[in-house]
Amino acid sequence: KTGVFTQGFIHSTGHGVGLDIHEGPNLSESGKELKAGCVVTVEPGLYFKRTGGVRLEDVVVVTANGCKNLTIFEKNLVIE
Q1: pLDDT at 21 > cutoff 90
Q2: Which is the most buried residue in 35, 52, 61, 73, by most CB within 10 A?
Q3: Residue 28 CB neighbours (<10 A)
Q4: Chain segment 32-62, per-residue pLDDT in tens
Q5: Residue closest to 42 by CA, chosen among 75, 77, 16
Q6: Total domain count for the chain?
Q7: Is residue 76 part of a domain?
Q8: Are the C-beta atoms of residues 34 and 25 closer than 8 Å to each other?
Q9: Of 51, 12, 53, 57, whose CA–CA distance to 39 is shortest?
Q10: pLDDT surpassing 60 at residue 4
């Protein structure tokens, strides 16, 4: 937890996906190993008082070699 964004990072990184909206496992600093076939969200968010916040969420399935992003949405940072 070092760097400029640690102050606004107040939630876990994600959670499991299933029959409930938020179910285990919670993705945090626990270091718990995810097994192949597990479906989770990866949703880092930044929140700042008086400014607002942002949270982007991807749904991924854990594979034997890593993970596959199931979210089909292009992400581009546009600053005007």
Answers
A1: no
A2: 61
A3: 12
A4: 788 999 999 998 888 888 888 888 899 999 9
A5: 16
A6: 1
A7: no
A8: yes
A9: 57
A10: no
